[in-house]
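Researcher: Sequence recovery benchmark, item below. Answer with residues only.
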């Protein structure tokens, strides 16, 4: 029941959160009701409940999913799961690891399969009709999960196993999932009594509704606010972007126009290249005002209510604030440690921004622009500075960044590090939910053993949430028969015109590698139980951040970065410019991210009664000395990581925590004789940082890889920031 234990609030279970997240589902059923479930299975005419059929150990029937089946499937799956739970809770035999923990791991197959389809509708092909179902079912799902958490007989049996002598005889993985099972109950209301337990359940239900509403409001603004421009407004925009914008407009029925969609992948290049300052400001405001337009989709009141409920809920459990509760079982352990890391980096980041803005202002003054650099100017003038300082033109680089070639590069890296081979699956052999989705079989290069499938859904479209994320439709387990992996990467690239390559920016190429890192984490897993796939949020981003480093290896650059028209490899002098400019604009990137991460912690360590989101955001950033030329990467009203669910709530700092591990681990490769393809370091990488998932404490796993804990000064070196004095020894 791994999915259940990653979060016991329903929407953290069924909604993929933010730019980069994992969706996992329970995969097998309880033996106590296995025969009953099997006989019922034959009678299921609802495809969402049926076992995955077909090749590769069975695959989701994405070609047969109908929205009208979703609600009855959810209701039936919850009913079946509760029967399984009741059977475990009321088992008269003395509690053991096998009849309690393993049975819980086995429970929930039907619900897990329904969640697979639910996640597709939620993230990849949303619609007003789906959102109605989502709004209705969110509180019901929350009540369902709370019913399990508050099952006193079940918790007592879990507690008995956790406190038993048997625990010492279990394997390390079994001991860890027993602790995680107990901890998930204890931290989510199982120890409460009477009115407190009832109120806890009520809070969870209301939060589920609010999280869904927040997410759908952001999606509504992304769909409703598209900026259409005409041919005379295209100055400065690259040809590839123009063609993609034209295609995006045509797909929306706007012939003869060009669409700047309200997503980062469209907004970012427009702000980088458009010479029309007035339009840049319009596109910038449209993007950063998502959820903040004082209309029916405004999220400010929802934020305050979410914070109030979260605070009340953890107070019932005896915690001072939500962040204290959230970080207790994370690597950071408490909000003070997380904030301490931020404050070590923040001064250097905003100091670098000041330098970057000065360089931009100098160019603007020299050109006679007669402006003061504003947020909608940052990317535009940063590009001019890049060209002036490093003679590096981002659009020139983009001509060598073809989506298909980058995918081949990722496959190459996976082959070298993980010994994986990716082979395209014949079209039609595996069902997909959209024609853009392609599938590859993953096998071991030497033995040919089937590892799993990799689905790719790369392009932006209406009904698909913004950002990039990774998910699984089935995770690797062996406790109940071997189950192979069904992994997926999802992005929002703007598709190139028909017959032409899709070209992306360097930042987007890094994101592409990043998300593939999550997929490799799924595919490389070697654990026994579903719960071992539950992630520690300030650790799970580390592996994917680390994989970004292989984009700049010579093997990738020399073989896969080729011009989309001529096929010529990227010139060595251009590569040299890219490497010299590797820490360029680091002030902007670090500051916009950290502003969001710091605000997340502030929101969750402050009395909610004192918070008006709009005012709080402004005032707290001012106290921090936030540069006026930059805004939070995710402003509060569209901060989906934090307010569309609880996966990253009080935990968005985790990307920075993971960056420390990333920078330190990268130095391990740089110090090795074989560099980033060193076999010895690579083997340790796979064994301790990928295959083990959460079957081992992350801090212990990292020490086994590196021989010591990570050091923050590696991060400072990596970003070209001065190392804090206290780090120098």
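Model:
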């Amino acid at each position: 029941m791994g999915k259940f234990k990653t979060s016991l609030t329903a929407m953290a279970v069924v909604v993929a959160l933010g730019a980069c997240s994992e969706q996992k589902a329970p995969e097998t059923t309880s033996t106590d009701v296995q025969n009953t479930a099997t006989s019922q299975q034959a009678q299921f005419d609802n495809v969402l409940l049926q076992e995955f059929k077909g090749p590769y150990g069975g695959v989701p029937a994405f070609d047969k999913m109908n929205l009208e089946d979703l609600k009855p499937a959810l209701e039936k799956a919850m009913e079946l799961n509760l029967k399984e739970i009741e059977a475990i809770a009321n088992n008269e035999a003395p509690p053991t690891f096998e009849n309690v923990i393993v049975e819980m791991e086995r429970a929930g197959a039907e619900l897990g399969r329904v969640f697979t389809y639910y996640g597709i509708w939620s993230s990849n092909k949303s619609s007003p009709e789906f959102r109605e179902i989502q709004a209705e079912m969110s509180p019901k799902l929350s009540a369902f999960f709370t019913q399990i958490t508050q099952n006193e007989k079940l918790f007592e049996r879990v507690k008995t196993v956790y406190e038993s002598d048997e625990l010492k005889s279990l394997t390390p993985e079994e001991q860890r999932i027993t602790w995680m099972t107990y901890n998930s109950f204890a931290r989510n209301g199982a120890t409460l009594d009477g009115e407190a337990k009832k109120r806890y359940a009520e809070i969870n239900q209301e939060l589920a509704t609010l999280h869904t509403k927040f997410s759908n409001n952001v999606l509504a603004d992304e769909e409703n606010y598209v900026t259409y421009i005409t041919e005379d407004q295209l100055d400065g925009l690259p040809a590839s972007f123009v063609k993609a914008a034209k295609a995006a407009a045509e797909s929306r029925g706007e012939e003869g126009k060009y669409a700047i969609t309200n997503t980062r992948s469209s907004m970012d290049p427009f702000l980088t290249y458009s010479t029309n300052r007035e339009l840049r400001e319009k596109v910038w405001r449209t993007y950063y005002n998502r959820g903040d337009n004082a209309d029916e989709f405004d999220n400010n009141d929802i934020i305050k209510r979410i914070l109030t409920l979260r605070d009340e809920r953890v107070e019932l459990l005896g915690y001072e604030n939500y962040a204290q509760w959230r970080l207790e079982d994370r690597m950071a352990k408490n909000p003070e440690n997380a904030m301490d890391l931020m404050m070590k980096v923040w001064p250097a980041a905003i100091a670098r921004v000041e330098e970057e803005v000065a360089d931009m202002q100098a160019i603007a003054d020299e050109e006679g622009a007669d402006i003061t650099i504003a947020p909608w100017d940052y990317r535009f003038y940063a590009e001019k500075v890049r060209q002036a300082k490093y003679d590096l033109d981002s659009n020139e680089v983009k001509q060598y960044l073809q989506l298909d070639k980058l995918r081949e590069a990722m496959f190459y890296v996976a082959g070298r590090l993980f010994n994986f081979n990716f082979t395209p699956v014949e079209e039609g052999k595996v069902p997909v939910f959209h024609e853009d989705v392609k599938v590859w079989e993953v096998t071991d290069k030497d033995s040919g053993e089937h590892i799993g499938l990799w689905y790719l859904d790369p392009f932006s479209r209406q009904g698909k949430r913004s950002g990039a994320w990774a998910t699984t439709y089935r995770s690797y387990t062996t406790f109940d028969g071997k189950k192979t992996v069904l992994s997926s990467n999802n992005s929002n690239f703007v598709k190139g015109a028909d017959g032409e390559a899709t070209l992306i920016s360097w930042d987007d190429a890094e994101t592409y590698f990043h998300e593939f890192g999550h997929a490799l984490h799924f595919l490389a897993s070697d654990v026994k139980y579903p719960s071992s796939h539950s992630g520690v949020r300030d650790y799970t981003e580390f592996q994917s951040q680390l994989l970004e480093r292989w984009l700049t290896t010579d093997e990738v650059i020399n073989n896969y970065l080729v011009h989309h028209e001529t096929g010529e490899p990227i010139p060595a002098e251009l590569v040299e410019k890219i490497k010299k400019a590797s820490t360029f604009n680091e002030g902007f990137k670090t500051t916009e991210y950290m502003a969001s991460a710091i605000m997340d912690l502030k929101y969750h360590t402050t009395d909610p009664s004192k918070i008006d989101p709009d005012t709080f955001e402004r005032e707290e950033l001012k106290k921090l000395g936030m540069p006026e030329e930059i805004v939070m990467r995710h402003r509060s009203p569209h901060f989906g990581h934090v307010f569309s669910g609880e996966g990253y709530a009080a935990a968005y700092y985790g990307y920075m925590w993971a960056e420390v591990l990333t920078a330190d681990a990268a130095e391990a490769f740089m110090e090795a004789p074989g560099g980033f393809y060193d076999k010895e370091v690579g083997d340790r990488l796979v064994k301790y940082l990928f295959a083990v998932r959460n079957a081992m404490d992350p801090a212990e796993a990292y020490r086994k890889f590196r021989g010591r804990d990570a050091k923050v000064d590696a991060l400072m070196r990596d970003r070209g920031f001065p190392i804090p004095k206290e780090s120098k020894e």
